[in-house]
Each structure stands twice: as structure tokens, then as C-alpha cells.
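User: My instructor asked us to take a sequence, write out its structure as C-alpha cells, and then describe one feature of it. I'm not sure where to start. Here is the sequence I was given:
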Amino acid sequence: MKRHPNNPLITPEMLNPTMPGLEVLGAFNAGAAIYNNQIILLLRVAERCVEDSDSVGVPIYEFKDNKSALKILRFEKDCPDVFLKDTRGIVYKGVDYLSTLSTVRIARSYDGINFTVDDAPFIFPEVPEEKYGCEDARVQRFGDEYFITYSAVSQDGWATALATTRDFKNLERKGIIFYPLDKDVCFFPKKINGRYYALHRPHNEGFGKPSIWISSSENLLDWGRHKCLIRPRDNKWERLKIGAGGPPINTDKGWLVIYHGKGDDSIYYLFTLLLDKDDPAKVIRRASFPFFSPKKKYETAGFFPNVVFSNGHVEMPNGEIFIYYGACDETTNLFVTSVDELTADVMK
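Assistant: Let's start with the prediction itself. The C-alpha cells for your sequence are:
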């Protein structure tokens, strides 16, 4: 498994902001697909307001007459009603806002390494349930349609929405398919025993920790038969939470899943998991150790240090797998591997 020497492939400096007054902080966590002999990345692009000495700004979408518009709200820094919660959070008069807002843009490449990124968002808030942004898209092709899941963020938390496209120009929204608080939704690439399957991650509170669940559907819209698949283990790599990555890979030994774990010191790692081909709710093997961890400077130092997060990969004609991953919630990167290498890892 090799990091590409051109990493980072996409950085914030390569992108233009959506509107004046904003700046791009991150281009990361990309869903990936092949369309018309091109590799398509669905980039999460995070933007914030240009800093002002006297005020803090919040990018937000407003909705009127079935249309949405991007606006900037500004609050005086010395206002007693303003509270800066963390790197992404601002509270004004008890209402939470995000200091950054994410949309999904398309990046295109013929070699999977050199990308051209669209200036305009492909998926952006169009309904109030997406008021605070659209994040972390995953994509799976069924027939001639590409099915895109993404996190829709609003004052009600995050949920998972679905949209489809045939040409990565026109988008048809299907609405929310997993209600709050549920994210990290990826589809299996084909029906199994007549049903579609998906992995997802409800936000367990109280007794449990955020874990990976599996569900099934007859139509990709209505999901049921929910079952907890795996939970965080008590080790330094994933004791806080886990979540699924890109779509499972169909192999001779079973469904190969890449998932992330958040462990001690909030460091993220990538793991492999193998599920039964005929019954994906059955775990065949789970890797004991992560196969990928933050090591390079662009993975350890950035907006959110020590984060590697993958939700998109493509299988190349020569048998290689291009796994795209976000680093530090800031850049898009690539490592190259194969089914055999990943399968060998999970079977250790």
C-alpha cells in the first residue's frame, strides 16, 4: 500500500471560494466514481468567512419561495451573546451555528491524479434540512444512475440524504433516507438475495458508542431490518467511535469493507472488515490492527490534526484500487493498493 508521491492531490489553495467574503479551508473526504472514462470525485469543500478584526462571520443558507441563497451573518466579537465553542462552532443567543459551511463540488481527472475542480457546488443546501451544509458524499452506480448519499446538516443535527444523477450535471434529490442522527451511509454495489444493503452509523448515546450498523431495503429509499454490525473495541485505535468508508468491495472471500476508527488523542485510523457474501450481516473477519494511520506531515498537521478519512475508492483496469482520503479535514490524497493486499490485511 503506497501513498502517491503527488500527495496532497487537491488543496484548498487550488479552489475558488463560492462567493466574495468566503475562503476555502478544506477540500477533502471525497466520494469516488468512474464516469465517461474519467474519475469523478465528489469533494467536500468547507468554506468560512474571511476574518474581520471586529466581528465573526457565519456562512449560512436562507430559504424563500422554494429557493435557497447563501448569506453571511456577522456578530460583533465583543458581544456578550457570542460564544466561540470550538474550531467549527459559534453560539449566538443560545443558537448554534457552524463557522464553516460545506458543499459538494465535482473534481474530474483522466488519470486519477491530476484533477480539475468545478467552481460551483454540485450539491448545496436547497432545503432547510441542509441549512448548515452538505458533507461527506458517497456514491454507488446502479445501472445508468449514480446514487449519492451525503450528510445533511441543520439546526436539528445531521441526517443522511440521497440524490441521483446520470451525468454529474443534473441532480435529482430523493430526500432524507436515514433520520438524525445518522451518517456514514454507503451502499453495497448490488442486490443480495433480492434486497439492497447499506452500512450506516447512528449516533449512539447513553449506553453505547457510535458503531457500524447494517440495514436493507427494496427500493433504496425505505430502510429497515436494522442490526448493529460491529462496535468500537477497547483499544487505542478505535475506542471512541467507528464508521464505514466507501462502498464495500466484492471479492472472492466476501464483502471487503474499509472503515475508520477514532482512538486515543482523537487520532483517526483505517481498518478492514470482511463480511459474508450471501449474508452481509455476518462478520467473517475483522482486522486486529489498522492498515493506515496518520504519518506524513499533511496527515498530522492541519485544520483537524491526525485525521485520515476515506469514503471513496475506484477499482482500476489493472487491478489496482485507488483509495482517496481526506487528511486533517483539509486536503485530498491518494494511496494505491489492491484487493489482494487489503484482503491479506484483514486475514492476518
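For the description part of your assignment, you could build on this observation: The chain is about 5% helix and 55% strand. Try explaining in your own words what that tells you about the chain.
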